[in-house]
Amino acid sequence: MSENFHCVMGAHIEPGEEITAAAISAAKHELSDDADLVKEMGDMSIGHDHSHDHGDEEGSFCEESSLGNMEKDEQDSMLSTLGSFYLYRRRAHSHLTHRRRVAFCNMPLYQQSILHGEGIEFVYKTLNGLDIAIESNAEIAEKIFHHSIETFGIDTLALAEKEWLDSVTTEDHDKVRSTLKQFYRDWSAEGAAERAVCYTPVMEELERRFGSLAAKDKAKVQVLVPGAGLGRLAFDIAVAGYSAQGNENSYHQLMASNYILNYTTKKEQHTLYPFINSFSNHRTRENQMRGVKIPDVHPSTPLADAAHGDRFSMAAGDFVDSYSGTETAGAFNVVATVFFIDTAVNIFSYLETIWKCLCDGGVWINYGPLLWHWENREADLKLAGEDAQGMELTADEVVKVAEALGFKLEHREKGQKGEYIGAGEDSMLKWVYEGEFWVMTKVPKVTKYTR
């Protein structure tokens, strides 16, 4: 049996030293609740991070926004997103390590001694290691924060008031964690296997249809990627020589993609720890603590040609609102949807918008499951102002609806099985999808004239 060891919120208490009720109480006091975390400012100064020069207009791939041009609800949403990246460091330390140090202090001494023993070393090895991993993730979150201030036109004077953090919600904090984790899937070498399952079929279909075109003609092929997330598929399409526009409605995803695409300075610039936020279903502690390098490629390098030809952009906004109008009617040769159509409140709206923004004979390429995001979430729909919920259809039914709306099915197959941000071989829980892959073309509607 190893010597007794105790730790109060990171303060080392020597073996044999008594842990008093006062010490434990002090440790608990240090653990702020959610409201305190939101209201308190950290030590990080607010301002622009000048570690990397802002690219010229031609080289930036995110359409800039300005708070002055937004509705108040949209301003609040952007500021709460910004605040959640800002608060990541403090909240992660509190919820992942500080809370467990308090719990450790409340355990019987013999249990503490066992957890301190060789092969476990829960405080020294696990919690201290997690603190280091949090710092690495926080570096990424704070880079996103700083560069979003400039790109999205945030008034820095507004950030001088602490009240702007009051709107940050638990959901915002959850989205920061999931967004950071998604870097594993889209921008690490380890995520290549997941990308191959869902992105490769899209790239192969593009190559089959347009690969033989000369470079100047290939560049004229306009591809829209709704639900672009962190921008990897749209990036791959642009690098392959096509013109690609990613569309994304989540400010968390937009701010993160803006940083990775426009501001990273080299390949493998950051070490990301994607799995530290959950302690469940790990066979080994190493599985939880493993890091990956991001980005696996330096985006600006292969995108130089795309930037020169204005062939790549990321656009903010709701898909239906942004692409169902006359200004985008018939504007795209291809719409590529990956893990996207099940986010629809009403699938008819998505299908009609895809049909409308495609040119005659244009191609819709789809891969993904049907995990209907709004199923059994009527209260959330009302909060979001959505009152036209559709039906949760099967894949067969979606295809039939699409055909009824003016699409012709050219190819359909069961996709390969693949994980979505899997936790590795030493995870005891795996979410495996077997998505549907199909290719459809837009059939022009025939106008009937009567005499």
TrEMBL record:
InterPro entries: CARME, SAM-dependent_MTases_sf. SMART domains: N2227. It is an enzyme of class 2 (transferase). Its EC number is 2.1.1.22. Transmembrane segments: none annotated. Pfam families: CARME. GO terms for molecular function: carnosine N-methyltransferase activity. Keywords: Methyltransferase, S-adenosyl-L-methionine, Transferase. GO terms for biological process: methylation. Belongs to the carnosine N-methyltransferase family. PANTHER family: CARNOSINE N-METHYLTRANSFERASE. This is carnosine N-methyltransferase. It comes from Pyronema omphalodes (strain CBS 100304) (Pyronema confluens).
